[in-house]
Amino acid sequence: MVNVIGDWGLEMNGQPLDRNPERNLVSPRNPVSEVASWELTSSNTNPDPFQRGWQYLDRVRQLTPEPGMVELSDEISDRIRICTWIGDRIDGINLELTDYLEACHQCFPVAQRQNIQIFAAPLASILGVDGLCNILLDPIAILIDVGRVNREDWLGLVVHEYAHAHLKSPGHDRRFLEVLVHLCLGLGLVPPVCAASWEVDPAVNSAQLRNWPHCTSTANPLAFWLGLTETQPQKS
Question: Which residues contact 132 (CB under 8 A, 6 or more apart)?
Answer without folding.
Answer: 2, 3, 4, 5, 10, 23, 64, 69, 123, 142, 143, 161
